[in-house]
Amino acid sequence: MPEVPLAEDAAEVVAWYDFSSKPGAGSNAVFAGHINWNRAPAVFANLDDLEAGDVVRLVSDDGREYTYEVFANFAVDPYDTESLKVMAPTETDTVTLITCGGTWIPDPSQQFGGDYTTRTIVQAKLMQSSVTAPVLAALSDS
Questions:
Q1: Which residue range forms the structural domain that includes residue 108?
Q2: Largest CA distance in the chain
Q3: What is the CATH number of the domain that holds 47?
């Protein structure tokens, strides 16, 4: 099972799984983020609200912006090995976003004191990419 983002600021961290494609490279770029962290909403708190036709925008460190259109939103059982297929390479440029979903089941033996019963999967296809000014690089040069 892929690792979940762990950091002091994990609430806002979106992890790219480096075994997957990079955005814009023509296959499946897989990202994960927490639904909540420390009892507060986290970066993917509203992921399950996305619907077919909604837009997802990714901006890379080099200033390239990728616009994706959602085509799927569904739940999988995290313990079913078939659910890992959502991370497999694809023939088209796709982004797959993963977070927890379902019901929280407390369990002190778990790393985070429990786990959710499902994982929410949102998949979207690339519609457009463009280069914008690399704001972070420009700020660090001054």
A1: 10-140
A2: 50
A3: 2.40.260.10
* 2 is a domain residue: no
What's the structural domain count of the chain? 1
What is the rounded CA–CA span in Å between residue 93 and residue 69? Answer: 11
* Alpha carbons 112 and 25: distance in angstroms, whole number: 34
pLDDT at res. 22: 94
pLDDT digits 0-9 by tens, 82-126: 999 999 999 999 999 999 999 999 998 887 788 999 999 999 999
Distance CA 126, CA 44 (A): 20
Phi/psi for 131 (5° steps) reads: -105, 130
* Chain centroid to CA 4: 11
DSSP, collapsed to helix, strand or coil, labels residue 22 as coil
Residue 14: phi, psi to the nearest 5? -115, 120
* pTM of the entire predicted model: 0.85
